[in-house]
Description:
The chain has nine helices and seven strands. By secondary structure, it is of the alpha/beta class.
Amino acid sequence: xxxxxxxxxxxxxxxxxxxxxxxxxxxxxxxxxxxxxxxxxxxxxxxxxxxxxxxxxxxxxxxxxxxxxxxxxxxxxxxxxxxxxxxxxxxxxxxxxxxxxxxxxxxxxxxxxxxxxxxxxxxxxxxxxxxxxxxxxxxxxxxxxxxxxxxxxxxxxxxxxxxxxxxxxxxxxxxxxxxxxxxxxxxxxxxxxxxxxxxxxxxxxxxxxxxxxxxxxxxxxxxxxxxxxxxxxxxxxxxxxxxxxxxxxxxx
Length: 252
């Protein structure tokens, strides 16, 4: 079944996901994922429901969410994906999930708009969509410009731009968080020395973090504020002059 999925999948997409997966499995990718996991599980701890669906190029299992009954990971036909699918063709019905997580899915995508639409369609009204991405205006985003590994393929879409897309898809942005303030240095010794930067950054939510986490809620159908229809100004009603008729004129 997996071999058949490999044969039918877009080879350019498979190559992109493979390169992203290799980079995320390396020391810098693991550092980023470690910091993301902490913030992500903090947010997921307050959600409850029947289904959580996660999508991304990483090989790790789905994030922990203790109050959600079923936790499923979608992805390319590679180890770690519980359900194999293409990025714009999820085997889910509309409004099937209570929570959907896109972890670097938009960063490593052939069509970020198409992927986001598919994820948004799968969230039930009142449910949540969580998006993690590499912040372009950070040392991690700058490193992408000179990288020779999978990070060079990352799109690094700005969080403000993703927020605009979410608004157009009928979501309200509830929270924006940032993490991984350490620069992407290859030296493990320097990473340990700079670990204190994480507590400082978390406390102040300073700019320049390596990744962002957006938490958006899908608006309930019928509760979205509607734009007031334009009403053309109408003229005032003026009393019309009434001719006075005397009794003499009426008798004649």
